[in-house]
Every structure is written in structure tokens, then in C-alpha cells.
Design goal:
By secondary structure, the protein is of the alpha/beta class. Among the domains are: 217 residues, 3-Layer(aba) Sandwich (Rossmann fold), CATH 3.40.50; 103 residues, ANL, C-terminal domain (GMP Synthetase, Chain A, domain 3), CATH 3.30.300. It is 30% helix and 23% strand. The chain is built from 16 helices and 25 strands. The strands form 6 sheets. It has a 9-stranded mixed β-sheet. Helix 6 links the parallel strand 5 and strand 6. Helix 2 crosses helix 4, helix 2 packs parallel to helix 9 and helix 8 crosses helix 9. The protein is globular.
Length: 550
């Protein structure tokens, strides 16, 4: 495949794409995913939507304010001026975004894309050393950061990074600078296959993988999964809990509603109970969240508060059939389950309405194909477990990473999930095929947690795996060998939990800590993770640490 001439002056991203022969096969069977050669997805999502529906309709809502489409366009254009004129951003530079889900984060996303930059949206809970890795890999040149989340960014090793804050008081904030800028900006005429965003996903080696997605990819997820399965309407109000730093949240709370001319209610943080209350109060009609939240809402007896939601979408982890059925019994609504991946940008297997089979993830989303492969890389017979493999208009392109060979094989994206396909083509999730721990919708790499725990002076060595949990699906469990003289008690376990929470994103901390005299290893010294997973599954005695603060 020959790439179109790039609009990027800084060619960092394109130079680090894997060779085309290492890409998965891309499929453009649907007419709607065949985009023009020149395409800026920010213009398509914002300017073109305004041309169809008008600028005065509501767009971004919070607890106390409403931005219209015209408001977002104005601020996005002003952000683009600030980036290019004040921070010196040129097309192809990477712009890091850091903050919770709020309108200025979205304005920063659109402004950066209009300026021809490559957006790197990060989780606001990431700690300094995690930001170090993102900077080392993606080399952002500028950052827009919520004023409440600057401490870890300041502590990170990010030489040359120009940081501008937003949301706080002062004359040198993003909003103050925007106020002095023109409301008109001529968006950079990017190619449809210019890199638009870099999304980071944790790998089981602990080193994050940077996935690169084109401008056309951003529209493709809206024109496949959203258009054909979610089926949004211009009158819809979206909301949900996933951060925009997750591609699940970016699609469900920004790309999908704006592609349809809908509005989105942005929540910086909400417990399941708070989520249910705000859904009822604000009249939300499309909801994106993890199975954990649906389970908690049911458990609290609050399912009736979601009665006005016509499209409930679940992803991030497998949706238990019991949760699906209990929700259906409670209010009559069918939850839309789906599996996606950061490498693919969003959901590629799902089903809605009468096409749903409880317990199955679903069918390939229109525009995608899916097969189940055996160890020989060939499709297995229906009913036989194997590796889920997919292809479609989006696909894996790691930034300068040899793990491209692991994810893409013979043109297929190998998701790392074990599935069974039935005779009707429905796909049934069995388990993760790697060491990723999926807890409450968060992907957590066990070796990454191990690396942090091993820096604690009391820890000689450790192994981290997932343990089944009724509420969260899985939790992080740490098997820890302490140095001689350290007491293996609850106080030590709590100290280790707190240490992890202060060193990396808090949701990654081990909720269960078991002290052991030694770890199971092979003759060559390799940690036998399978044995640890077996122990965790069997529920052998645990020195339960109890909940750490927060």
C-alpha cells in the first residue's frame, strides 16, 4: 500500500510506522469507510457536522455548563492558534493531553488535530515514571495539562516539553491565551493516512506499546461499530465512565456522538451509584461503561434509574451473562457487549437488539472479519477454542516496536484472546491469552506492577497475576518474597499497596498480597506465571491486605 503525500513537517510518526508489509491486511468493503485522500478528522467531526446540523445545538455538557457545537469550534480553532503561534507546534509534532474528561480536554484534542499535530491523550492518573516512558517513546513537544494534574508531569523526565495548563486561574492559562486568538483557523490539509493519534497500551513486558492511528481510522470506528451497532441519533445524549485516554472512551464519548450530531455529558469521575443518578437526572440515552458498573448498579437496586437509556454499551472486559440477564429482567433493555483493542482503536465484535445472544460477545462488526485460529495459524472447527484474529479498516501499527510481529500474523490482528465460534458465527469469550489483568475495565500488565514492587526495599522478588473477583471481574494479586527480617503481616502488605499507589496509576495496585517463601520457577529461572494463576484461581490461603486508602 502506497501512503499519500504527508502534510507533516515533523515526520517522526510516519518514519516510525512499521514497514507496510508488516501491517495487517486492511479491508474497505463498506463504501462509507472509503475516505478521500486528503482528510482531517477534526474537520470531519466538527466543521462538517456543523454544516449538516447547525452550530447552536448542544455538544459538550458538564454538571454546570453547556458548550454548543459553535462553542467547541471556536475554542478548538483558538487552541490551534495557541499551539502553532505560542508553543511553536508544527504539523507532525506530538501534543500530549493530560486531564480528566471535560470540555477543555476535548477542545485541546480538536485543536491539536486541526493544527496537524499528532495527539497523545493520556490517563490523568499516570505517575511520573509512566509519563517518562510515554515521553521516551512518543517524544511529545508540547503538552496541554489540567492545572490539577501538573505535579506528576513536572516530576517526569520530559526534556524540551512545553507545558500549558488549563482550567485554573491566571493570565497564562490556555483559556486566557485563547481569548486573544482568532476564532477562525484553517485546518492543516492532512492526508487520510497521516497519523492522527498515538494511543498507549500496556504490554505484558511492562513497557507500554504505542499504537498509531490515521485520520481515516478515527472516522472508521464511527462509521462501523457506532453507525451499525450503536446507531446514534442527533437527539441522543451520551455519557460514560471511561477516560478519553482510553480509546473506548474517546470513541464512545467524543467521536461517536460528534459524528452523529449528538451531545455528550462529560463526567470527570463517578461511582456507579453516582453514574445511575446523573443518567436519570440528565436524560442520558446512550451509556458507555464497564460490566463492573452495570453489576454495581444492579446490586444497589438502581437499575430503574437507567430505564431511559436506549443504548447501553459494555466493553473493557467480558460481560457476564448473569449481569446481562439481570439487567434485561430489571428494565427490559439489552446491554450491547463488545470486544475492542487499542491496536484496532475500538470495538470489532459486537451485536445489538435481536441479534444478541446472551453470553456471546457477538458477531464481527460490519466492515470487519473475525476467525478463530489454532496453534498452526489456521482456522479451527466451530466449537474449538483458539486465538481470536480480526481484520478490517483499522489495524495494528506499533510505533517502532518489534512486538508488531506478535500482534500481526499473516495479515490478521491477533488480539490475545481465546474464543470459540459457534455454527452461526457467534463468538464466545473464554479467557485472555496473555498476562494482562482486566479489572473493572482497566487493562493492567502484571509485570509492570512487579517492576514497581521490586523497587521497594522490603521486597526480594515478586510475581503478579490476576485473581477472580466477583465485583471487579479480576483483581491484581501479588505473591511477594520479603527480604530476611521483614515481618510478613498486614502492616507490611498495606505499606506495599500504598507504595504502588504512590508510584503508578492507583488502579494498578495489588488488592491482594500473599507473602510466600519462594516463587515457582522453571529450571532456567523463568517465573512460572501459570502456576501463580493456578494458585490464585484455587483460592489458596492469602495474607489478605485489605483495602488500601483510596
Amino acid at each position: 500500500m502506497e501512503l499519500r503525500p504527508s502534510a507533516h513537517v515533523d515526520t517522526f510518526s510516519r518514519d516510525r510506522l512499521p514497514p507496510v508489509e508488516q501491517w495487517p491486511e486492511l479491508i474497505f468493503e463498506l463504501p462509507e469507510v472509503r475516505y478521500p485522500d486528503r482528510l482531517n478528522c477534526a474537520v470531519a467531526l466538527l466543521d462538517d457536522t456543523i454544516a449538516r446540523h447547525g452550530s447552536d445545538r448542544r455538544c459538550l455538557l458538564t454538571a454546570d455548563e453547556t458548550w454548543t457545537y459553535g462553542d467547541l469550534l471556536t475554542r478548538a480553532n483558538q487552541v490551534a492558534h495557541v499551539l502553532t503561534e505560542d508553543l511553536g507546534v508544527v504539523p507532525g509534532n506530538r501534543v500530549l493531553l493530560r486531564g480528566p474528561n471535560n470540555p477543555w480536554l476535548v477542545a485541546g484534542w480538536f485543536g491539536a488535530l486541526k493544527a496537524g499535530a499528532v495527539v497523545v491523550t493520556t490517563m490523568p492518573l499516570l505517575r511520573a515514571h509512566e509519563l517518562d516512558a510515554i515521553h521516551e517513546i512518543g517524544r511529545p513537544t508540547a503538552a496541554l495539562c489540567d492545572h490539577r494534574f501538573t505535579a506528576e508531569l513536572d516530576a517526569a523526565e520530559t526534556p524540551g516539553l512545553r507545558v500549558l495548563t488549563y482550567g485554573g486561574p491566571g493570565e497564562d492559562t490556555l483559556a486566557a491565551r485563547c481569548a486573544a486568538k482568532s476564532t477562525v483557523f484553517e485546518a492543516v490539509d492532512t492526508a487520510c493516512d497521516d497519523v492522527a493519534l498515538i494511543a498507549f497500551t500496556s504490554g505484558t513486558t511492562g513497557r507500554p506499546k504505542a499504537t498509531m492511528h490515521f485520520h481515516r481510522d478515527v472516522l472508521a470506528i464511527a462509521d462501523t461499530f457506532s453507525a451499525h451497532v450503536v446507531r446514534p441519533e442527533p437527539t441522543d445524549l451520551f455519557t460514560g465512565t471511561p477516560p478519553l485516554g482510553f480509546t473506548f472512551g474517546l470513541g464512545g464519548l467524543v467521536v461517536f456522538p460528534l459524528r452523529a450530531g449528538s451531545a455528550t455529558l462529560l463526567l470527570e469521575r463517578a461511582t456507579p451509584e453516582e453514574l445511575a443518578a446523573v443518567v436519570a437526572e440528565r436524560g442520558v440515552t446512550v451509556l458507555f461503561t464497564a460490566p463492573t458498573a452495570y453489576r454495581a448498579i444492579l446490586g444497589a437496586g438502581l437499575a430503574d434509574l437507567l430505564a431511559g437509556v436506549r443504548r447501553c454499551v459494555s466493553a473493557g472486559e467480558a460481560l457476564p451473562v448473569g449481569v446481562w440477564q439481570a439487567y434485561r429482567d430489571a428494565i427490559g433493555t439489552r446491554i450491547i457487549d463488545g470486544i475492542g483493542a487499542t491496536e484496532m482503536l475500538h470495538v470489532f465484535v459486537s451485536a445489538a437488539d435481536d441479534a444478541i445472544r446472551p453470553g456471546a460477545t457477538g458477531l464481527p462488526v460490519p466492515g470487519y472479519r473475525a476467525v478463530v485460529l489454532g496453534p498452526d495459524g489456521k482456522p479451527v472447527a466451530d466449537g474449538t477454542p483458539g486465538q481470536l484474529a480480526v481484520k478490517g479498516p483499522t489495524g495494528c501499527r506499533y510505533l517502532d516496536d518489534a512486538r508488531q510481529f506478535d500482534y500481526v500474523r499473516d495479515g490478521w490482528n491477533i488480539t490475545g484472546d481465546t474464543y470459540i465460534r459457534d455454527a452461526d458465527g457467534y463468538l464466545w469469550y473464554q479467557a485472555r491469552s496473555d498476562d494482562m489483568i482486566v479489572s473493572s475495565g482497566y487493562n493492567i500488565a502484571g509485570p509492570e506492577v512487579e517492576a514497581v514492587l521490586c523497587t521497594h526495599p522490603d521486597v526480594a522478588e515478586c510475581g503478579v497475576v490476576g485473581a477472580v473477583d466477583e465485583r471487579r471481574g479480576m483483581v491484581v494479586k501479588a505473591y511477594v518474597v520479603l527480604h530476611p527480617g521483614v515481618t510478613a503481616d498486614e502492616a507490611t502488605a498495606r505499606a506495599l499497596q500504598t507504595f504502588v499507589k504512590q508510584t503508578m496509576a492507583p488502579y494498578k495496585y495489588p488488592r491482594s498480597v500473599e507473602f510466600v517463601p519462594e516463587l515457582p520457577r522453571t529450571d532456567t529461572g523463568k517465573l512460572r506465571r501459570g502456576e501463580l494463576r493456578r494458585r490464585a484461581a484455587e483460592g489458596t490461603p492469602v495474607a489478605e491486605a485489605g483495602p488500601a486508602p483510596g
